[in-house]
Specification:
Strand content: under 5%
Order of helices and strands: HHHHHHH
Shape: flat
Radius of gyration: 27 Å
Largest sheet: none
Structural class: mainly alpha
Number of strands: 0
Length: about 140
Amino acid sequence: MDFRVRPGELEEDQLTALLESYSARWPTSLFMGAAFASIIGSLVLKSQKKDLHALFIGQWAAPFLILGLYNKAVKQHGSDTRHDHGPDPRHKHEHGPEHQKPEPGKSPITLLPASHWYPLNWNDPVHDALRRQVLAGQ
């Protein structure tokens, strides 16, 4: 049984949509500025020997940056792409011109040679012994 959630299967609730509609109006630089202010404030407090306060203020930089990323994602992709960008993504559509589709049996994807994905150091005695066994057919 497959329990994965595919794009467009579930919708966000109205509270989330409401919060995102307000937060999307805020510039992303607001969150970046808050993160830098947190870092600078932490440095100032640390220089004043207020270590616990410096730790508390400094730990807010990461949440501000994460909120900035979330804000940016909402601006670029919207709350619910199913409602914002046309047809239901669960329906498969053919995209692209015919000349861009790969021919059956001919794939542009090739495997790297074994020396690239499993590099051995032939100067290492263990690897050299392995190489000799392989070459001897053992």
